[in-house]
Amino acid sequence: MPEDTTARAGAIEPTETAAIEGPAPGPVATWLTGQGFDATVLGPDHEGVEMLGVEPAALPLVATALKAAGFDYLQCQGGYDEGPGGRLVSFYHLVKMEAMVERLESLAAGSGPLPADVHPEEVRLKVFLPRDGALSIPSLYGLFRGADWQERETFDMYGIRYEGHPHPKRLLMPEDWKGYPLRKDYVQPDFYEMQDAY
Questions:
Q1: Is this structure's pTM higher than 0.90?
Q2: Which residue would you say has higher pLDDT here, 155 or 133?
Q3: Three-state DSSP state, 61
Q4: Alpha-carbon distances, residue 162 vs 22, 41, 165, 167 (angstroms)
Q5: Which tens digit of pLDDT belongs to each residue from 140-196?
Q6: Looking at residue 6, what is its pLDDT?
Q7: Using alpha carbons only, how large is the chain's radius of gyration in Å?
Q8: CA 14 to chain centre
Q9: Is the distance from CB of 82 to CB of 88 less than 8 angstroms?
Q10: Is 156 exposed, middle or buried (0-12, 13-18, 19+ CB in 10 A)?
Q11: Domain locations along the chain
């Protein structure tokens, strides 16, 4: 028997509606918007953690606001390449560590094991940079000291510069290395001549 399509003629499927409207803002995006900050809602990641896109110039302001709101720990900073024709991305994973420690202490005061569903509040920030544009972002070193080597590694591997970083030099590769090895458009040299060997 043929499928009845009269009820769906011209109707938009729920998945299409979600794609048009975009992901719903989470609690952090809602709070930031209420405080007058602009961030693009990217939806949750594979673990359900809220992800937000931030413009490079707004990154220090948004990160400062989040730190004041309790996101006091930079768990991880890094970068990745979206691939041919894609953008370069600098990402930041922020955690409410002090609030989590207080919660764990209050739970541990009672008898019995900690519940398995106890997780810290987290948020992911992403800064998208056009491959052929200015690959420059303000450094978060002044706000999170843990950004020091992480931003240096991201510069070393992807070529993203962190303005205001106190030690803006390569971390893993020799200082005179050409190119950025984790970019997908990187061409590996046939050889590397160590200048210090002579």
A1: no
A2: 155
A3: helix
A4: 30, 24, 6, 10
A5: 999 999 999 999 999 999 999 999 999 999 999 998 888 999 999 988 877 666 655
A6: 46
A7: 22
A8: 28
A9: yes
A10: buried
A11: 19-108+117-185
Structure-token pair, residue 86: 């894609």
Q: Pairing between strand 122-129 and 40-44?
A: unpaired
140 alpha-carbon distance from chain centroid: 13
51: its two tokens = 């992800």
**Helix locations, the chain, DSSP H:** 14-21, 27-34, 59-68, 97-109, 147-158
Helices (H), 69-176: 97-109, 147-158
C-alpha–C-alpha distance, residues 89 and 79, integer Å: 5
Q: What is the pLDDT of residue 164?
A: 96
* Interval 72-106: pLDDT, tens: 999 999 999 999 889 999 999 999 988 777 777 77
Burial class (CB in 10 A: 0-12, 13-18, 19+), 99: middle
Is the CATH number 3.40.190.290 carried by domain 19-108+117-185? no
